[in-house]
Design goal:
8-stranded parallel barrel; single chain; TIM Barrel
C-alpha cells in the first residue's frame, strides 16, 4: 500500500474522547447532528470539542436527511472541514453548501456499487457502509467486502462493522483510502472506549504493514 489509510472515529461526544483520538494520530473525528442517534451531539458541546482539538485533525459534521437550515446552522457556528451526508440526500443538495462533502452509500447484497458511486461526482470521497432498513450507520455489521470496488474515481472510505479485531484484515485486503469506525470502539452505544480506540488504530497499522 502506498500510504496508511486515514482513520476517522465517528460519534465523538466528549472533549476527552476527541483529544484522546487526536493523541493516537487519528486523522478525523465525526460529530453526529442527527437527534435519533445515541451519538448525537448538541451544537454547544460540539463547539467545546472542536475548540479543544489540536491542529491538523479534521472535523466532519454528519447529517441524516437534514433540511438546509439545519446544515447552515452548524456550518455558520462550527469550524467544520467536511460535511458527511448519511441519508437519502441527492447530489444537488449535498453540493449546495460550498463545503467539501462525503456521501455515505449503503451497500446491499448484490447492489451495483459502481452505479451508486457515479451518482455523486462532486463528492470529495464516498463512504461505503452496511445497508440496514432502519439504521443509518452504526449497525455493527460488515457488508460483503467482495463488493468493495478495486478502483473508483473518488477516494473510498470503508465503514460498517469495523472493530479492532477485523480492521487489520480489512485494510490488508481492500486497501481503502480511509476507515471509519463508531460502534466498534464503544463499550456501550454512544460511549467511546479509549482502550478500543487505541487497539483500533494499532489494528490499522498492522493491516498497512501486511
Amino acid at each position: 500500500m502506498p500510504y496508511r489509510p486515514r482513520i476517522k472515529i465517528c460519534g465523538i461526544k466528549t472533549v476527552a474522547d476527541a483529544c484522546y483520538a487526536a493523541s493516537l494520530g487519528v486523522d478525523a473525528i465525526g460529530l453526529v447532528f442527527y437527534p435519533p442517534s445515541p451519538r448525537h451531539v448538541e451544537l454547544e458541546q460540539a463547539c467545546r470539542i472542536v475548540q479543544a482539538l489540536p491542529p491538523l485533525v479534521s472535523v466532519v459534521a454528519l447529517f441524516v436527511n437534514p433540511n438546509a437550515a439545519e446544515v447552515a446552522r452548524v456550518i455558520t457556528t462550527l469550524a467544520v472541514d467536511l460535511l458527511q451526508f448519511h441519508g437519502d440526500e441527492d447530489e444537488a443538495f449535498c453540493h449546495s453548501f460550498a463545503r467539501p462533502y462525503i456521501k455515505a452509500l449503503p451497500v446491499r447484497t448484490g447492489a451495483d456499487v459502481q452505479a451508486q458511486l457515479s451518482a455523486y461526482g462532486s463528492a470529495r470521497a464516498l463512504l461505503l457502509d452496511t445497508y440496514h432498513p432502519q439504521l443509518r450507520g452504526g449497525t455493527g455489521d460488515c457488508f460483503d467486502w467482495t463488493q468493495f470496488p478495486r478502483a473508483a474515481q473518488r477516494p473510498l472510505i470503508l465503514a460498517g462493522g469495523l472493530n479492532p479485531d477485523n480492521v487489520g484484515a480489512a485494510v490488508a485486503q481492500l486497501q481503502p483510502y480511509a476507515v471509519d469506525v463508531s460502534g466498534g470502539v464503544e463499550s456501550a452505544r454512544g460511549i467511546k472506549n479509549q482502550a478500543l480506540m487505541r487497539a483500533f488504530v494499532a489494528g490499522v497499522g498492522r493491516g498497512y504493514e501486511d
